Amino acid sequence: MVYIALLRGINVGGKNKIDMKLLKQTFEQAGMTEVVTYINTGNIIFSYKGQSKTELSRILEEAIHVDFGLQIKVLVLSIADVRGIINAIPDTWKNDKDMRSDVMFLWDEIDDETVLENLVITPNIDKVMYVPGAILWSCDKENVTKSGMAKIIGSKFYKQVTVRNVNTARKIYELMQSQNS
């Protein structure tokens, strides 16, 4: 089975620095196969047979703690999980000079449509939707500072998600598909 491990908060602002080559070795030593990293923000595609996603998260968090001395949350998603999220992203959503679009991958404890009730969504600026496993968010770049979603940093909600822009999310899925064939 092909999975993605999304690490929260590594190599951001000079904190929790982890070399991707060493991280790949950590995953391999933990029993993962066909390990591929994508960019420096903690996206690791791998294959594994036998454990639940929750158990894989625990194994990988422990391996990272042992090898790097860091307490990093790891969200593990199957290719089917990611496919559902990617298919829900409108084709017109991009992350470019005109538009900012993100996928906020949710930890299980908040993965429910009711999570939207606790978010500040600015009408006529934010485009926000829930899909199992994620909140999808987009707005025009010129309105980012007016967006309610841009103000989640530091909130309780923000600590229970890991964010990737839609371009990165689409590339992750593409890499997962190539490994799955």
Write up this protein.
The chain is an alpha+beta fold. The chain folds into 2 domains: 2-80, Alpha-Beta Plaits, CATH 3.30.70; 88-164, Alpha-Beta Plaits. The protein is built from 4 helices and 8 strands. It has helices at 20-29, 53-68, 79-88, 166-180, and strands at 2-7, 33-38, 43-47, 74-78, 99-106, 127-131, 134-140, 161-165. Strands 2-3-1-4 form a 4-stranded antiparallel beta sheet, sandwiched between helices. Strands 6-7-5-8 form a 4-stranded antiparallel beta sheet. A hairpin with a 2-residue loop joins strand 6 (127-131) and strand 7 (134-140).
Order of helices and strands: EHEEHEHEEEEH
The CATH topology of the largest domain turns out to be: Alpha-Beta Plaits
The helicity comes to 25-40%
Radius of gyration: 16 Å
The CATH homologous superfamily of the largest domain: SP0830-like domains
Which overall shape is indicated by the principal axes computed on the Cα atoms?
Answer: globular
User: What is the annotated CATH architecture of the largest domain?
Assistant: 2-Layer Sandwich
Mean pLDDT, as a whole number?
92
Give the DSSP E fraction (strand runs of 2 or more residues): 25-35%
The DSSP helix count reads 4
Q: What is the topology, as strand order, of the major beta sheet?
A: 2-3-1-4
What CATH first level of the largest domain would be assigned?
Answer: Alpha Beta
Helix/sheet category: alpha+beta
Number of strands: 8
**Count of separate structural domains:** 2
Beginning-to-end CA distance, first to last residue: 11 Å
